[in-house]
Amino acid sequence: MITVDIDLGARSYPIYIGENLPSTLWQGVLGPQVAIVTNDTLAPLYLETVRAQLGVDSTLDIILPDGEQYKNWQILQRIFDALIDACFDRHCTLVALGGGVVGDMTGYAAASYQRGVSFVQYPTTLLAQVDSSVGGKTGINHPRGKNMIGAFHQPRAVMADIAMLRTLPQREFNAGMAEVIKYGAIMDADFFTWLGDNATALQQREPEALCEAIARSCRCKAQIVSEDEREAGRRALLNFGHTYGHALEAATHYRGFLHGEAVAVGMAMAARFSVQSGLCSADTETRLISLLQSFDLPTEI
Questions:
Q1: Which residues have a catalytic role annotated?
Q2: Per the confidence metrics, is the pTM higher than 0.85?
């Protein structure tokens, strides 16, 4: 198991990365009332297993519909309604069992319910394990733009168990690799080269390669988030590819591209623009596009 720490003073927390993480990691993390928020695709696969791992007498299970199009206010209200109906107080803990949509919505619910309660990220997709579960950005989409409504609210811990990736469809896995590639492109040239050298092992989801890629991605994000928690400056680097990508997602009503696919297109577009502006070499653009395409990611509309 690998541990990466997010250093934010009193709001610091660990990211645990490994295969079949031990249940002892949950000790001291959960409050007296626990709600597991997941979706109707993941619930049949993992809900019972995760409930047993937590080591609590009972949980409130909140099951949402699966899909980016459901990351909205109406579905968020289902979380609030369930918590209120169950008389959950401000000492409760929410567990986000899912990908970026579940994680963002659960985090926003935790930031808002009773003016702020604890939550734990249990990401089940590669994209969530390396990006959306880390850093405290939470929120929902608005018809006019992605993630336009939300809050910064840090989790108590992130449980990145690569065993969860066994059932992840290949397209979803590849979409997660876009965010992994992003970290190499923005701040770690050695990691960028390593990804090219280990592309086959990653495609085959070899545990050692996966853990290394996730850990190095999380270390990159941890460094930036620790320096700039609320995106007042350097954290904007993490948005590489996202300006174009979010526009593409909104234009296709969150149905044409997976988030990572839109980011891949966005990174390719940003690289092309940077070459034209004299800010990036043509060789770097070529290497980036080649690496994205090695994971069957789109690089143009």
A1: 115, 137, 179, 221, 231, 235, 239, 242, 246, 259
A2: yes
